[in-house]
Amino acid sequence: MAAVAALAVACASSRAARAGPPPCAALERPGTLDAAAIAALAGDYSLTLVATSGERSGQIARGTATLFENPDRLRHLIDASGNPMLGVVVPFYGAADIDVTEVGALPLGTTTSNDPLQPGVLVIQNSPDDTTARSLVMRLGSEINRRNAVPFDGGYTVLRVRLVGPDSFLGSWASGTVTEVAAGFFCAVRRSNNL
Length: 195
Fold this sequence. Notes:
This protein has one domain (26-190): Lipocalin (Beta Barrel). Helix content is 12%, strand content 37%. The protein has 2 helices and 8 strands. The chain has an 8-stranded antiparallel beta barrel. A hairpin with an 8-residue loop joins strand 4 and strand 5. Residues 1-18 have low confidence and may be disordered.
């Protein structure tokens, strides 16, 4: 009888461990931004932001994010002259169900909009070549991501992707206006289809 009870407790603990959020740790050194891994980023993720500076330092925000491939007509940002920005592509847009204020980040509109013209999440890839990207940034907030406006001198909440794997991506984040008000690190882990 004791063995059955122990097995039941072990199974419950195992289910709880699988159901809980995965651990999130800061990268000790930048990884690589492999083009093939970036191309496969579309999907659903568990998202964790950890604050390491600002008024909410030490706090954690947890939620979800979904990334969709951008249609060809929206794969470029437009500059103030109305021309596509050179060396910049916008491969994905999406939405995130997360309260960024929990870690002291600025809310710049909603993060839950999945409208490709004003998404809650916009993925910007700078200077891509055949194998790597120099930088990969995810802007959070529908107001800053409006496709019919060129943002400047405004607020920002961005995730700077430092490592992309087959089932996750991670890096640092920052938020502010003229000066940074909060920052930290983040982890995004792909959610399985049965969640």
